[in-house]
Amino acid sequence: MEQTKILAICGIDTGVGKSVATGLMAGALLAEGQRVMTMKIVQTGCEGRPGDILLHRRLMGSAWTEADEQGLSCPYCFPFPASPHLAARLAGSEIRPDKIDQATGALARGHDLLLIEGAGGLLVPLRDDLLLLDYLAARHYPLVLVTSPRLGSINHTLLSLEAIRSRNVPFAGLVYNLFGNTPAEIVRDTLVTLKAALARYGLARPVVLLPDSRESTTVNWKPLLST
Question: Which residues does 138 contact at the CB level (< 8 Å), separation at least 6?
Answer without folding.
Answer: none
